[in-house]
Amino acid sequence: MLKVLKAGFFTSIQDLGRFGYRNIGVPVSGFMDNAAVRKANMLLNNDLDAAVLEITMTGPELEFESPTYICLSGADLSSTLNGKTLENYRVIKVSEGDILSCGKLKNGFRSYLAIKDGFQTEKVLGSRSQYFPVTQKASVQDWDEIPYKETPDFKPTISEIKTEGNFDLRSLEVYKGPEFSILSVNQLASLFKKTFTISKENNRMAYQIKELIGKHKHSMLTSGTLPGTVQLTPAGRIIILMKDGQTTGGYPRILQISNTSISILAQKRYRDTISFKLI
Amino acid sequence: MKSYPISIKPFGQSAVLVEWPIKVEDDILQDILNFIDAFQRLNMEDWEISAAYNSLTIVNNQGQIDFIKIKKLIADCYLEQKAKKIKRKEYLWRIPVCYDKAFGIDLDDASRRLGLSVEEIIQMHTSFEYRVYGIGFLPGFMYLGGLPKALEIPRRKEPRLRVAKGSVGLAAKQTGIYPQNSPGGWNIIGRCPIPIFNPNLEKPCFVNVGDKIMFHKISKAEYDLHKIEGEVGIYKPENVQLNA
Q: May I ask the CATH class of domain B7-82?
């Protein structure tokens, strides 16, 4: 078991996501920064969908109750194991009683703790990803105990990789959305020439952009939305749906950001800037 | 069965949007449902499909798709299903609602704005059959069509930060049930005691798109009873097969 001594700001269990229930309104959920998790799971020779801890902004304090191997990736939270500094993208052996603590967030917004064979919490509708009310809790709480398999010995094929992460990338690759054609010349110019700021309203459901790009009066029947769908409200506000985003919506879908760009956006926080690049 | 000019658009790199004419009507919904059946018979692994009023979102869960290829497949599938007679089971569900003022917190306000008495609102709300045109937004949230014109009322000016689970509301041409606590701007006229979405059941949402919903009025005591039955999982919602 992994004992959660302190949960941190928002720590949740995530895997690849919950597929097959979109038709009854269940969001996909899953890792926000897929690119970062993929590497961590690969270093541990895990399956792609092995469940990890997604740690947002302020890290947890965790106690390992049996030996295993872990790998951190994504944002660098200045984590330590029994006081010893840990590096991202490196396989680390942990022993019974080891305590992982987190410090200052150095870059990015979301950090991942992958563990050998993944966390073994119960699957709900085919996935371990926490999303309330599909799962009983929205996130990990103080004193939770998260099961994992004991692994006293493991020889990784590759024990570390050098990678920069995607924290400096600002440009998000986008495709035209289904209602792209409603955009006025002015709105188009703003969208692809300006730099935008991430607002305070940003979480696993959606990221809102601070700047407005002009009102519109287009009304439409509610229709499907996906992670990465960029909606434009009548007031001119840009909303980018993320992994826990609703499955349908009534605002025009002006753009769709690429899967890679969802990972980039997932590492942005309040006041960070982005731009859109049509591909 | 009528045929419609459908449009097939790319929706990012891993999804396709299929659109029917921009209307809320039974014939279009039936056509969409027939298409879903036909698409599902293709047994395309990794693809999922969801309906909303006049559109279908078809998503590949593995990532990048070949749009030209899938577009052709969808177009062929649409033409082919036209040739087949499909028998699908549709149900009418009777959903209990308690219109007690403790739950129907906007009943008095709605009565004033609609120019109807509270009794008239309840009487009308419970005498129509509503068609389920889609399930989305939140797990188990039903988009219902068929609200009588007399009950059309704009959303509240200021949305509430928290609308209680089970709340039954009116907003423009829509009525529906909030399946979980959620922010919301609808005018709340009652509360449904039974869960519409339960992840612990084999079928987490008992309603299917295409089914019909009818509300019936229950007392506060019946509400309390059904609430407990719902929580322990023994409440069986009443249904009638429509096309038996």
A: alpha beta
User: What confidence tens digit (pLDDT) does each residue in B42-80 have?
Assistant: 988 899 999 999 999 999 998 899 999 999 999 999 998
Contact yes or no for A133 and B199 at CB 8 A? yes
Q: Domain segments of chain B: what residues?
A: 7-82, 91-241
pLDDT band at B244 (very low <50, low <70, confident <90, very high): low
Note whether B13 contacts A259, CB cutoff 8 Å: yes
Does A223 map to a domain?
A: yes
Instruction: For residue B52, list chain A residues with Cβ-Cβ distance below 8 A.
Output: 221-224, 248
Residues A8 and A113 in one domain: yes
Residues of B in contact with A24 (CB under 8 A): 135, 139-140, 197, 204-205
The question of ipTM being above 0.95 is answered as: no
| Enclosing H/E stretch for A195 | none
Give this prediction's pTM.
0.94
CA angle B26, B29, B33 (to 5 degrees): 135
Tell whether A33 and A138 lie within a shared domain.
Answer: yes
Does the structure show a pLDDT above 80 at B243? no
Domain assignment present for residue A95? The answer is yes
Interatomic CA distance for residues A258 and A252, integer angstroms: 18
Q: Are strands A206-212 and A196-202 parallel, antiparallel or unpaired?
A: antiparallel
Q: Mean pLDDT check: name the lowest of A8-12, A90-94, A215-219, A265-269.
A: A215-219
Q: With an 8 Å Cβ cutoff, is A152 touching chain B?
A: no
Angle at A73 between CA A7 and CA A55, to 5 degrees: 20
- Whether the CB of B167 is below 8 Å from some CB of chain A: the reply is no
Q: Cβ B205–A25 below 8 Å, yes or no? A: yes
Across the interface, do B137 and A25 touch by the CB < 8 Å criterion? yes
Residues in chain B: 244
Same domain, A135 and A218: no
pLDDT band at B95 (very low <50, low <70, confident <90, very high): very high
Interface of B with A in 54-73 (CB under 8 A): 54-57, 59, 61, 63
Nearest to A240 by CA among A189, A205, A278, A214: A205
The arithmetic mean of pLDDT across residues A243-265, rounded, is: 96
- Residue A164 confidence class, pLDDT cut points 50, 70, 90: confident
CB B158 within 8 A of CB B201: no
Average pLDDT, chain B: 93
Query: Distance between the two ends of chain B, CA-based, in angstroms?
Result: 19
Residue A138 and residue A35 in one domain: yes
**In this complex, which of A220, A221, A246 lies closest to B137 when CB atoms are compared?**
A246
**Domain B91-241 of CATH type 2.40.100.10:** yes
